[in-house]
Write a sequence for this structure.
């Protein structure tokens, strides 16, 4: 008899050997186990892409949505059942491209969920065209003369929009990344975590070695203050010679749920529908 899978146990993946996603999967698994959250109280949400396959590879509740649409689905689930810990996993193209509009409004609402953006600076699933976070000059089959647009800076965008927890990690530093995810899970409100991760098949520029030569942990700088927005914005812009990782900015505000009176009585999901006949009559009007 086969042993039943254990909570947050990893499954067989379809990622390329050496993919940066493996580090994110290991870090997420470690963070969830350390957070001591029952697996039935966790929902992992993905869109479309190599990054969004992660919920399929970790034993927990999972929801697979459309390209760029993980955040509205995650928002709906969290509002319907506030007792759940909801984590969305998206790629840079998935989140910054197709899902850019949803990202803006998820930050604006400040729903209590965690977003992990896997940033490999390329569309890895659809054969390597440039993504919104690709650097100028990056050459692909679809951009043979190189990317001409500026690179989208996710953490700076999130801070400029008022996000109250903004962090950046590196998939090559699993323990550090696990700590970041754990802090994001404990933050009340929308937690934005961008993870730099190499794509070994489609991006031969931004490799593990390229990142390791530039990574700088802001928490090791004793003068750095995570509650200083101006300092965080200035430091997050570093990229060419030094790339900051760690918790870039954090402050405690009011989550979206705490501003909705009907949610103060507990999760909506288990509540009985007392006026079901009126509901049925309403639906009849649309038949």
């Amino acid at each position: 008899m086969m042993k039943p899978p254990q909570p947050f146990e990893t499954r067989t993946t379809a990622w390329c050997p050496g993919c940066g996603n493996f580090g994110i999967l290991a870090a997420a698994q470690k963070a969830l186990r350390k957070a001591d959250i029952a697996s039935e109280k966790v929902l992992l949400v993905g869109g479309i892409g190599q990054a969004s396959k992660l919920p399929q590879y970790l034993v927990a509740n999972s929801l697979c949505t459309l390209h760029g649409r993980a955040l509205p689905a995650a928002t709906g689930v969290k509002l319907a059942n506030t007792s759940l810990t909801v984590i969305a996993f998206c790629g840079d193209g998935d989140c910054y491209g197709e899902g850019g509009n949803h990202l803006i409004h998820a930050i604006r609402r400040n729903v209590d969920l965690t977003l992990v953006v896997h940033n490999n600076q390329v569309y890895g699933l659809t054969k390597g065209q440039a993504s919104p976070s690709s650097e100028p000059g990056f050459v692909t089959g679809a951009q043979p003369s190189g990317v001409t647009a500026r690179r989208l800076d996710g953490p700076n965008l999130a801070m400029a929009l008022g996000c109250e927890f903004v962090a950046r990690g590196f998939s090559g530093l699993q323990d550090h990344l696990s700590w970041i995810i754990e802090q994001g899970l404990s933050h009340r409100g929308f937690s934005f975590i961008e993870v730099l991760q190499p794509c070994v098949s489609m991006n031969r520029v931004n490799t593990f070695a390229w990142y390791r030569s530039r990574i700088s942990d802001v928490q090791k700088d004793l003068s750095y203050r995570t509650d200083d927005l101006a300092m965080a914005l200035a430091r997050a812009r570093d990229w060419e010679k030094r790339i900051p990782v760690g918790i870039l900015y954090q402050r405690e505000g009011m989550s979206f749920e705490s501003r909705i009176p009907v949610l103060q009585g507990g999760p909506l999901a288990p509540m009985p529908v007392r006026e079901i006949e009126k509901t049925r009559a309403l639906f009849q009007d649309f038949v």
In short: The beta strands are 42-46, 61-64, 85-91, 114-119, 165-170, 191-196, 215-217, 243-250.
